[in-house]
Amino acid sequence: MAIRPIVKWGHPVLHAPSAPVVEIDGSVAALVKDMVETMYAAPGIGLAAPQVAVPLRVIVIDLSVGKSARELIKLVNPEFVEKEGEQREEEGCLSVPGYGGAPARPTRVTVKGTDLDGKERVYTATELLARAFCHEIDHIDGLLFVDRLTPLKRDLLKRKLRKKAKAGDWEE
Ligand code: NI
Fold first, then answer.
1. What is the DSSP code (8-state) at residue 106?
2. Tell me: the pLDDT tens digits for 91-147?
3. How far is CA 6 from CA 52, 91, 93, 115, 121, in A?
4. Looking at 23, 91, 136, 171, which residue is catalytic?
5. Domain count for the chain
6. Would you say residue 27 lies in a domain?
7. Which end of the chain, C or N, has fewer beta carbons within 10 A?
8. How much is the pTM?
9. In a domain, 172, yes or no
10. How far away, in angstroms, is 91 Cα from ligand 1 center?
Protein backbone atom coordinates (compact mmCIF):
# COMPACT_ATOMS: atom_id res chain seq x y z
CA MET A 1 0.00 0.00 0.00
CA ALA A 2 1.10 3.51 -0.63
CA ILE A 3 -0.06 7.04 -0.13
CA ARG A 4 -0.42 8.64 -3.55
CA PRO A 5 -0.10 12.36 -4.28
CA ILE A 6 -3.44 14.18 -4.51
CA VAL A 7 -3.75 16.35 -7.61
CA LYS A 8 -5.21 19.83 -7.25
CA TRP A 9 -7.72 22.06 -9.02
CA GLY A 10 -6.45 22.84 -12.50
CA HIS A 11 -5.03 19.37 -13.18
CA PRO A 12 -6.74 18.11 -16.36
CA VAL A 13 -7.64 14.72 -14.85
CA LEU A 14 -9.99 16.50 -12.41
CA HIS A 15 -11.85 18.34 -15.13
CA ALA A 16 -12.79 15.49 -17.49
CA PRO A 17 -15.09 12.50 -16.99
CA SER A 18 -13.37 9.28 -15.88
CA ALA A 19 -13.80 5.96 -17.66
CA PRO A 20 -15.81 3.03 -16.30
CA VAL A 21 -13.84 0.13 -14.85
CA VAL A 22 -14.19 -2.75 -17.30
CA GLU A 23 -12.41 -5.41 -15.30
CA ILE A 24 -11.63 -5.39 -11.58
CA ASP A 25 -8.09 -6.70 -11.72
CA GLY A 26 -5.12 -6.45 -9.37
CA SER A 27 -4.33 -2.90 -10.39
CA VAL A 28 -7.84 -1.74 -9.48
CA ALA A 29 -7.59 -3.55 -6.12
CA ALA A 30 -4.22 -1.87 -5.49
CA LEU A 31 -5.65 1.49 -6.52
CA VAL A 32 -8.51 1.17 -4.03
CA LYS A 33 -6.14 0.18 -1.20
CA ASP A 34 -3.95 3.18 -1.96
CA MET A 35 -6.98 5.47 -2.18
CA VAL A 36 -8.14 4.38 1.28
CA GLU A 37 -4.67 4.93 2.72
CA THR A 38 -4.37 8.31 1.00
CA MET A 39 -7.82 9.38 2.24
CA TYR A 40 -6.96 8.46 5.85
CA ALA A 41 -3.57 10.14 5.68
CA ALA A 42 -4.98 13.42 4.31
CA PRO A 43 -7.25 13.07 6.39
CA GLY A 44 -10.50 13.15 4.45
CA ILE A 45 -13.92 11.48 4.38
CA GLY A 46 -13.91 10.66 0.67
CA LEU A 47 -11.67 10.31 -2.36
CA ALA A 48 -12.20 9.63 -6.04
CA ALA A 49 -9.65 7.95 -8.34
CA PRO A 50 -9.06 11.06 -10.53
CA GLN A 51 -7.81 12.82 -7.38
CA VAL A 52 -4.83 10.46 -7.45
CA ALA A 53 -4.53 11.06 -11.20
CA VAL A 54 -6.24 7.80 -12.24
CA PRO A 55 -9.17 8.52 -14.62
CA LEU A 56 -11.37 5.61 -13.50
CA ARG A 57 -14.84 5.52 -11.93
CA VAL A 58 -13.84 4.42 -8.45
CA ILE A 59 -14.67 6.15 -5.15
CA VAL A 60 -14.02 5.57 -1.45
CA ILE A 61 -15.89 7.16 1.45
CA ASP A 62 -15.50 6.79 5.20
CA LEU A 63 -17.27 9.32 7.39
CA SER A 64 -15.43 7.88 10.41
CA VAL A 65 -12.01 8.43 8.74
CA GLY A 66 -10.84 4.96 9.70
CA LYS A 67 -12.32 4.83 13.21
CA SER A 68 -15.06 2.37 12.30
CA ALA A 69 -14.28 -0.30 9.70
CA ARG A 70 -17.94 -0.83 8.79
CA GLU A 71 -18.26 2.77 7.59
CA LEU A 72 -15.73 2.29 4.81
CA ILE A 73 -17.38 2.30 1.39
CA LYS A 74 -15.43 1.23 -1.71
CA LEU A 75 -17.45 1.53 -4.86
CA VAL A 76 -16.63 0.77 -8.49
CA ASN A 77 -18.67 2.38 -11.27
CA PRO A 78 -21.08 4.16 -8.90
CA GLU A 79 -24.20 5.74 -10.34
CA PHE A 80 -27.34 7.39 -9.00
CA VAL A 81 -30.54 5.40 -8.90
CA GLU A 82 -32.51 8.16 -7.20
CA LYS A 83 -32.02 11.69 -5.87
CA GLU A 84 -34.47 13.85 -3.97
CA GLY A 85 -34.66 17.13 -2.09
CA GLU A 86 -32.08 19.86 -1.78
CA GLN A 87 -29.57 20.81 0.91
CA ARG A 88 -26.77 23.33 0.98
CA GLU A 89 -24.00 22.73 3.48
CA GLU A 90 -20.39 23.81 3.51
CA GLU A 91 -18.02 21.29 1.94
CA GLY A 92 -14.38 21.13 1.09
CA CYS A 93 -12.20 19.00 -1.16
CA LEU A 94 -8.70 17.58 -0.82
CA SER A 95 -8.06 18.83 -4.36
CA VAL A 96 -9.01 22.39 -3.40
CA PRO A 97 -7.19 22.74 -0.07
CA GLY A 98 -7.92 25.84 1.96
CA TYR A 99 -11.23 26.67 0.27
CA GLY A 100 -14.84 25.67 0.79
CA GLY A 101 -18.30 26.30 -0.57
CA ALA A 102 -21.90 25.25 -0.20
CA PRO A 103 -23.13 23.66 -3.44
CA ALA A 104 -26.73 22.49 -3.83
CA ARG A 105 -26.98 18.76 -3.16
CA PRO A 106 -29.90 16.33 -2.84
CA THR A 107 -30.97 15.50 0.72
CA ARG A 108 -31.34 11.83 -0.07
CA VAL A 109 -29.70 9.63 -2.71
CA THR A 110 -29.67 6.01 -3.71
CA VAL A 111 -26.43 4.93 -5.35
CA LYS A 112 -25.45 1.63 -6.88
CA GLY A 113 -22.16 0.21 -8.00
CA THR A 114 -20.08 -2.88 -7.39
CA ASP A 115 -17.61 -3.91 -4.73
CA LEU A 116 -14.16 -5.27 -5.54
CA ASP A 117 -15.62 -8.75 -6.12
CA GLY A 118 -17.92 -7.35 -8.78
CA LYS A 119 -20.96 -7.81 -6.53
CA GLU A 120 -23.65 -5.15 -6.80
CA ARG A 121 -23.91 -2.78 -3.84
CA VAL A 122 -26.76 -0.33 -3.26
CA TYR A 123 -26.63 2.49 -0.69
CA THR A 124 -29.33 4.88 0.39
CA ALA A 125 -27.90 7.93 2.13
CA THR A 126 -29.02 11.23 3.67
CA GLU A 127 -27.29 14.32 5.07
CA LEU A 128 -23.48 14.16 5.10
CA LEU A 129 -23.26 10.73 3.47
CA ALA A 130 -25.56 11.87 0.66
CA ARG A 131 -23.34 14.89 0.11
CA ALA A 132 -20.23 12.70 0.14
CA PHE A 133 -21.67 10.40 -2.56
CA CYS A 134 -22.61 13.42 -4.68
CA HIS A 135 -19.20 15.03 -4.20
CA GLU A 136 -17.28 11.89 -5.15
CA ILE A 137 -19.51 10.97 -8.10
CA ASP A 138 -19.08 14.54 -9.31
CA HIS A 139 -15.32 13.92 -9.28
CA ILE A 140 -15.60 10.98 -11.65
CA ASP A 141 -17.83 13.13 -13.87
CA GLY A 142 -15.09 15.78 -13.99
CA LEU A 143 -16.83 18.23 -11.65
CA LEU A 144 -15.65 19.84 -8.42
CA PHE A 145 -17.81 21.55 -5.78
CA VAL A 146 -16.50 24.81 -7.26
CA ASP A 147 -18.46 24.11 -10.46
CA ARG A 148 -21.73 23.84 -8.51
CA LEU A 149 -21.57 27.13 -6.65
CA THR A 150 -23.73 30.09 -7.65
CA PRO A 151 -22.16 31.92 -10.64
CA LEU A 152 -20.94 34.82 -8.51
CA LYS A 153 -19.25 32.62 -5.89
CA ARG A 154 -17.93 30.25 -8.55
CA ASP A 155 -16.26 33.01 -10.57
CA LEU A 156 -14.76 34.61 -7.47
CA LEU A 157 -13.31 31.31 -6.26
CA LYS A 158 -12.08 30.34 -9.74
CA ARG A 159 -10.20 33.63 -9.99
CA LYS A 160 -8.44 32.87 -6.70
CA LEU A 161 -7.69 29.29 -7.74
CA ARG A 162 -6.32 30.32 -11.12
CA LYS A 163 -3.96 32.73 -9.40
CA LYS A 164 -2.86 30.02 -6.99
CA ALA A 165 -2.36 27.43 -9.72
CA LYS A 166 -0.39 29.92 -11.80
CA ALA A 167 1.87 30.80 -8.89
CA GLY A 168 2.55 27.07 -8.36
CA ASP A 169 1.15 27.38 -4.84
CA TRP A 170 -0.49 23.96 -5.04
CA GLU A 171 2.81 22.18 -4.68
CA GLU A 172 3.20 20.81 -1.17
NI1 NI B 1 -13.25 16.34 -3.51
1. -
2. 999 999 999 999 999 999 999 999 999 999 999 999 999 999 999 999 999 999 999
3. 5, 17, 11, 23, 27
4. 136
5. 1
6. yes
7. C
8. 0.96
9. no
10. 9
Residue 29 structural domain: 12-167
Predicted pLDDT of residue 165: 84
Query: Which residues, other chains included, contact 26 with Cβ-Cβ below 8 Å and sequence gap of 6+?
Result: none
Active site residue 127: no
> Is 142 domain-assigned?
yes
Q: Where are the beta strands (DSSP E) in the chain?
A: 46-48, 58-61, 73-84, 87-88, 91-92, 100-101, 104-105, 108-114, 120-126
- Residue 111: Cβ within 10 Å count: 25
Please write the tens of the pLDDT for every residue from 16-47. Answer: 999 999 999 999 999 999 999 999 999 999 99
Domain assignment of residue 1, yes or no? no
Task: Output the CA 14–ligand 1 centroid distance in Å.
Answer: 9
Q: Nearest 5°: phi and psi at 117? A: -95, 5
What are the φ and ψ backbone dihedral angles of 5, each rounded to 5 degrees?
Answer: -65, 140
Measure the CA angle with vertex 168, ends 134 and 41; round to 5°: 50
The CATH number of whichever domain residue 149 belongs to comes to 3.90.45.10
CA dihedral 80, 85, 90, 95 (to 10 degrees): 20
